[in-house]
Amino acid sequence: MRKPDVTEYPDYYGNKYxxxxxxxDILVLMEEQLKDTVNLLENIGEEKGxxxxxxxxxxxxxxxxxxxxxxxxxxYQIFRISRGDRSSLPGINEDEYVIKxxxxxxxxxxxxxxxxxxxxSNIEMITGLDEEMLLMQCTADGHKLTVRTIPYVMVxxxxxxxxxxxxxxxxP
Length: 172
Fold this sequence. Notes:
Elements: H1 11-16, H2 26-42, H3 60-82, H4 94-101, H5 108-127, H6 131-134, E1 137-140, E2 143-146, H7 149-170
Antiparallel strand pairs: 1-2
Helix pairs in contact: 2-5, 2-7, 3-4, 3-5, 3-7
């Protein structure tokens, strides 16, 4: 699958997430990122899971919980759009979702395991898409979006947040 054209997604996705994705087969990148992310989380340790680098900032568990929420949401978008559903998809309030997720009440391992399952499931779903399905589009959060854009956003989104974890949580 080739990288999406800039006409297939809002500027926000391109500047913040897609620009972070290196060249290569996106499915291979997703699989490698899955292993790297799980390895990163396994090396953090439960005792640091509730750490926040500042007042009002998410804990490490909440950051990973947010990744899970978005992984689930992106998978749902791929599912709906690739099946020909052209109805508009709303955005979410990520801060409210994190609060309601109560991730600090769970173990870091549990949240990490959830990421593994979600990403693995999404990789399998994406593997089954043909070129016609990848080019299907709808409006998501008020912007045009194609199916093939979403895996790149998924990878870029995880890169963004794991960079934040490394820079602000593990090496303050």
